[in-house]
Write a structure and sequence with these properties.
The chain is an alpha+beta fold. The chain has a nine-stranded mixed sheet with strand order 2-6-7-10-1-11-12-13-14. A three-stranded antiparallel sheet has the order 5-4-15, with no helix packed on it. A two-stranded antiparallel ribbon has the order 3-16. A hairpin with a 4-residue loop joins strand 13 and strand 14.
């Protein structure tokens, strides 16, 4: 009789390399503008095309934004940092090297040794403590061009290159390998995006490439040394990050369970098929032949500069979450959703300013409105609805002009078209019936039409009242004041 196989327990180890497009008017080393969606190859010059004889000039704004991020993440800004040449050939890199920074002892990157808190997966109760994930370094570099592959019948027939993105200012944030699940990786990235938006460093729009994430994934036996890692690329949404890493973890688990070694390689995520596939063997640092960029002097960061940056930072999402819980009495889960983006937090606070009932505003934002955003794949500032619209809707519900059920109909139309709630109510005749005399006549009609449930209620089957209330709501197309309808029915059933 064969011995049954015993499932091996592995610990997941994930580290992220996050590329952030900085909010600057011009590129990192030239004056070409940075504009998303411009016609291909219209925002270029000899510098960003890497033509011989062109010289780079550093964009100070990019350095300032890098420092803002470093301070917000608790990193230590280095007194001096140096740009290096990272040498490799790829069609979208015309000069065959990328100007970037690398962690040398002699020439460190812009900032090192920070952290960002994420909630513990096993401690999500209110007041639960989080876990800090280390940020190894924050460094600056230039972006490459963009390859556009033309496919036919599932095969790439040719590729086009758009150099508009070449030279766009990038900041790379590298975490320590301290994330322990795909869910944690997604949470970290979401919280980091909220920080970047709050300090106005980046739009954080992954669908536009403003925030891109690569992940190093490995498995190990608990307490053992780090295993062989793979690098996963081409993840363009928070959902993609979680799905890709979940697939890669299970793929590696299956490889190890077969007694085979995991190959160190770069793998790409295929969103359509839901798999990762091998792209190339993973390079090591020595393969890139780093050396200091001879055309750029080191960056000198004085303590006064760091102090100015620290003083200019707005309230960060972590502090905002604590304030929402303490000041507004919101659950931590709701506060997490409201601070998931700078736009959502601004929308909530402006709504509360116009309608000072935080919990009511929160319920609509984390409920119907967030559900709509998830389906539409948009941020709240991309919709035609405004805080004034939501405040007006809440006021209509509060004064009994419309029911909660009617409000749900209105909010869907409001989100899609951006029209004021009062206009929708007027045009569609959705005002709640709160006139007692008019509602009493409708109640009499319902009682006369449904003698069976009336007899059941009077015989002690009180659940029949729910049916009768439903009939009143049906007859009024949901416009009856439910509390008033309930009271009138009880009074008439007792008489």
């Amino acid at each position: 009789m064969s011995t049954p196989a015993i499932a091996t327990s592995y610990e997941t180890v994930i580290g992220l390399e996050i590329h952030v497009q900085l909010l600057t008017a011009s590129k990192m080393f030239c004056a070409c503008p940075v504009t998303f969606g411009a016609p291909p190859n219209t925002l270029i010059c000899p510098v960003c095309l890497g033509l011989p004889g062109s010289l780079p000039v550093l964009n100070r704004k990019a350095v300032d934004l890098g420092l803002r991020t470093a301070v917000a993440l608790g990193c230590t800004a280095q007194p001096t940092s140096q740009f290096h040449r990272k040498n490799y050939y790829y069609p979208d890199l015309p000069k065959n090297y990328q100007i970037t920074q690398y962690r040398y002892k002699v020439h460190p990157p812009l900032a090192i040794d920070g952290s960002l808190e994420i909630p513990r997966e096993d401690n999500l109760v209110p007041g639960g403590t989080g876990r800090r994930i280390g940020v190894r370094r924050v460094h600056l570099e230039e972006d490459t061009g963009r390859l556009v592959h033309a496919e036919q019948h599932g095969r790439i027939r040719y590729s086009l290159i758009d150099f508009n993105r070449s030279g766009v200012p990038l900041m790379e944030i590298v975490t320590e390998p301290e994330l322990r699940s795909p869910q944690e990786a997604r949470t970290f990235l979401a919280r980091l995006r909220a920080v970047l938006q709050a300090i106005e460093v980046s739009t954080g729009k992954m669908e536009e490439g403003s925030l891109r994430c690569d992940a190093n994934v490995s498995l190990r036996r608990p307490g053992a040394e780090l295993g062989i890692r793979t690098e996963v690329k081409n993840m363009n949404s928070l959902r993609s990050v979680e799905r890709a890493l979940a697939y890669e973890v299970e793929r590696q688990r299956a490889v190890l369970d077969r007694g085979q070694p995991v190959e160190q390689e770069t793998r790409h995520w295929d969103e359509r098929r839901g798999i990762t596939f091998s792209s190339r063997t993973k390079e090591e640092a020595q393969d890139y032949r780093y050396f200091p960029e001879p055309d750029l002097v080191p960056i000198a960061v004085a303590p006064q500069w760091v102090a100015q940056v620290r003083a200019s930072l707005p309230e960060l999402p972590e502090a905002k979450r604590r304030r929402y819980v303490a000041t507004y009495g919101l659950p931590e889960y709701d506060a997490e959703l409201l601070t998931s983006s700078a736009a959502m937090a601004r929308f909530f606070e402006e709504t509360v300013r116009l309608f000072p009932h935080p919990k009511a505003a929160c319920n609509w934002l984390v409920g119907d409105i967030t559900a709509y955003l998830n389906v539409a794949g948009k941020e709240i500032d991309e919709l035609p609805v405004t805080p004034a619209h939501l405040a007006e809707l809440l006021q209509l519900v509060e004064r009994g002009a419309i029911s909660g059920r009617t409000a749900k109909e209105i909010v869907a139309e409001m989100l899609a078209q951006g029209r004021r709630p009062e206009v929708i109510v007027g045009e569609r005749g959705l005002a709640q019936i709160s006139d007692e005399e008019a509602l009493a006549r409708i109640v009499d009609e319902v009682l006369a039409e449904h003698t069976g449930p009336v007899s059941e209620y009077r015989a002690g089957k009180t659940q029949a009242l729910t049916f009768l209330v439903g009939q009143v709501m049906k007859k009024t197309r949901g416009r009856a004041n439910p509390e008033m309808a309930n009271r009138l029915l009880k009074e008439k059933l007792k008489s």
